[in-house]
Design brief:
The chain is α/β, with parallel strands linked by helices. Helices cover about 25% and strands about 25% of the residues. The chain has helices at about 35-50, 70-80, 85-95, 135-140, 170-180, 200-210, 260-270, 275-280; strands at about 20-25, 55-60, 100-110, 110-120, 125-130, 155, 160-165, 185-190, 215-220, 235, 240-245, 250-260. The longest helix is centred in the N-terminal third of the chain and has 18 residues, at about 35-50.
């Protein structure tokens, strides 16, 4: 299940001929106030809308089941195992709507908690689980245990789908590892706050172009100067945005992805074919002075007073 699987995408859900339609739920931030049942109720409504729109896959934000900036104690209290009641609820929604679903939750793993995502197929079976590998400054490290497996994949129609979470995509090495392993659609649930709009506007299209794959980057929306900035988007392997959300509302985005665009982009700009890995792993390349010093990565405030 972790390294590879098949996410059944049903037979009725598709976009235009030859394309796979993906739905991205830029959810309004609710924190953990609604609880598991509240989340499952909202997810069921959105998944039904995605199905009505012809989507084969619905992607939700980072920690979509609970909210993200909750603090260690609250996050631990909401944590569930991978086969818990939350997973059962999402699997039932996927089966009922015929839409594959990516959702995030705090996963109870032994004595720790991982920032995890599941890809559930349209048949209700879990096709992949990924645990966030790059933890985001002291905030993440004080709450979560990092995952140890970077490339997690599943098949969805014509696509080899990969999973990353938020900060992971800001490392070009992580995205390139996926491209080299055959990922051609990378799904990235995120919880990005203002003022870091640069990430979806500039960095995410660059990641898609330099590794020549589709990227679906799906964020929360929340008001205020330190709220979630929205700007969810689907970017093609040519770096062109196929669908994008704004920064001021909840939205459900739909994008049609043509698998042939991946091969076309890799022919036009052969980054992957022209790599010279023998040059990149030289001893000392990643041990320069000051490389591991300096401030924490870009700030991770606790918007809306949710810290615990």
């Amino acid at each position: 299940m972790n390294s590879s699987g098949t996410a059944n995408s049903g037979t009725a859900n598709s976009g235009r001929a030859g394309a796979t339609r993906v739905a991205c739920w830029q959810s309004a931030w609710t924190g953990s106030a609604s609880g598991r049942d509240g989340f499952l109720g909202r997810l069921a409504e959105v998944a039904a809308r995605a199905a009505d729109g012809g989507a084969a896959l619905l992607v939700t934000p980072e920690m979509s089941a609970t909210g993200y900036h909750l603090g260690a104690a609250r996050t631990a209290a909401l944590a569930e195992p991978a086969d818990g009641a939350l997973a059962d609820g999402v699997r039932a929604i996927a089966r009922r709507t015929g839409v594959a679903i990516v959702y995030g939750w705090p996963e109870r793993v032994g004595e720790g908690v991982c920032n995890s995502v599941h890809l559930v197929g349209a048949d209700g079976e879990v096709a992949a689980r990924y645990r966030k590998t790059h933890l985001y400054g002291e905030f993440d490290r004080s709450v979560f245990t990092p995952g140890g497996e970077l490339v997690v994949q599943a098949r969805l129609g014509d696509f080899t789908v990969g999973l990353l979470v938020c900060y992971d995509v800001e490392f070009p090495e992580a995205v390139r590892a996926h491209a080299l392993a055959g990922t051609d659609l990378l799904l990235v649930p995120t919880a990005l706050v203002r003022p870091w709009e640069f990430v979806p506007r500039t960095l995410v299209p660059a990641r898609a172009f330099e590794s020549q794959l589709f990227v679906a980057y799906v964020n929360w929306y929340g008001p205020g100067p330190a709220g979630y900035c929205g700007l969810s988007r689907v970017v093609g392997p040519d770096g062109v945005v196929r669908a994008e959300g704004g920064g001021s509302a909840e939205e459900l985005l739909l994008a049609d992805l043509d698998h042939g665009a991946v091969a076309a982009s890799r022919r036009a700009t052969p980054y992957l074919a022209n790599l010279r890995p023998e040059l990149y792993g030289r001893p000392g390349l990643h041990d320069g002075p000051g490389l591991h010093d300096g401030p924490e990565p870009h700030g991770c405030p606790e918007p809306h007073g949710t810290g615990a």
